Amino acid sequence: MRVITGSARGRRLGELEGMETRPTTDRVKEGMFNILQFDLEGRRVLDLFAGTGQLGIECLSRGAASAVFVDRRADAVKLIKQNLKATDLQDRARVVAGDSMEYLKSLGEKFDIILLDPPYAAGLLEPAIAHIARFDILATHGIIVAEHPAGRTLPALEPPYRLHRTYRYGKIGLTVYRRSGNEEIEESIS
């Protein structure tokens, strides 16, 4: 597993042992970053259920201002820190050891991009999306990218959030949500 492009291009990332963590495949990661390519520069990123940290690290490598990595597993937290050091990106990163859902409830900041890739069988994706909307932690014009099995349909959200599009990469789907700004309110007043 390597960083695709940017300041850490080509650097190898460590992987976790066992089957509990499923790294995003190169094809899906490439698709994800084709979607995000014009939205990364200077942005604040949240890599929830971070695993190896590869998605947030790719964002930092491509110019994101900062990234927060959250994972409950001690071995994952240790590996994320090692991967950040190996890519020389630790100065713009914060690693949080703990439950991702509890972290969402306690947040006092907003993010421009939120990456969601929980273990598929854990049943955490829909609750995480609901928490993000309920606690309104996505910045205006922000983006949520959720990875899931291709046959799964994710729920629509109430404004200002909207389900933008779902992309399919073989057996994997990426669903993109966007948060609008005040333009919809202004249009309804006119």
* Main CATH class: Alpha Beta
- Tell me the β content: 25-35%
Low-pLDDT residue spans: 184-190
Q: What integer is the average pLDDT?
A: 90
| Total of helices | 6
Number of strands: 7
Strand order of the largest sheet: 3-2-1-4-5-7-6
* Main sheet overview: 7 strands, mixed
Distance between the termini: 51 Å
- Number of discrete domains: 1
Specify the CATH architecture: 3-Layer(aba) Sandwich
Over all CA atoms, what is the radius of gyration? 16 Å
Question: CATH H-level name... which superfamily?
Answer: Vaccinia Virus protein VP39
Series of secondary-structure elements, N-terminal to C-terminal: HEHEHEHEHEEEH
* Structural class by SSE content: alpha/beta
Taken from the alpha-carbon principal axes, the silhouette is globular
The CATH topology: Rossmann fold
**Percent range for helical residues?**
25-40%
